[in-house]
Amino acid sequence: MASRIASLLPSVTETVCALGLRDRLVARSHECDFPPGIEDVPAVTASRLPADAVTQAQVDGAVTDAAREGEALYDVDADLLARCQADLVITQSLCDVCAVAEGAVLAAVRDIDPPARVLSLAPGRLDEVIASVQEVADGAGVPDAGRVLVASLRARIDAVRAR
């Protein structure tokens, strides 16, 4: 069972909290801003995009420039992550533009002692998003809570489809 969780995705932070595990969350990404009060958890990532890149064209230009130069869009504070002593780090492997690249996370956890387990999610469809909720619950050691949350989500989806 994971007792110290680092969530590097906003959706996972919300999932961890929905599973009743807010007290196990020891680190988050800079993008995690919900539920209220989550800002008290240390942010172990940061965007490299210029703060003045606010229009779509400016952001696209900055992302294009970074890709051309082979530069990452995000930083992981490996020292802070190590000090948080996470035993489970949850990230994604779907998109290096949307969130910290999986390789950067793997590099950041390489020297954590004791080693942290990395759970990398890559849902592309709604059913995979629902399955990732159960993956998070299983990874955190609360599979029953995951099944309850998944059932609730499926019921909500079914209610919307029935309208």
Précis, in short:
By secondary structure, this protein is α/β, with parallel strands linked by helices. The protein has one domain (5-123): Nitrogenase molybdenum iron protein domain (Rossmann fold, 3-Layer(aba) Sandwich). The protein has six helices and six strands, in the order βαββαβαβαβαα.
Secondary-structure map:
Blueprint: E1 5-7, H1 10-18, E2 25-28, E3 45-47, H2 56-69, E4 74-76, H3 78-84, E5 88-92, H4 102-109, E6 117-121, H5 126-140, H6 143-162
Parallel strand pairs: 1-2, 1-5, 5-6
Antiparallel strand pairs: 3-4
Helix pairs in contact: 3-4, 5-6
Report on this model:
It contains 6 helices and 6 strands; from the N terminus they run E-H-E-E-H-E-H-E-H-E-H-H. By secondary structure, it is α/β, with parallel strands linked by helices. Helix 3 (78-84) crosses helix 4 (102-109) and helix 5 packs antiparallel against helix 6 (143-162).
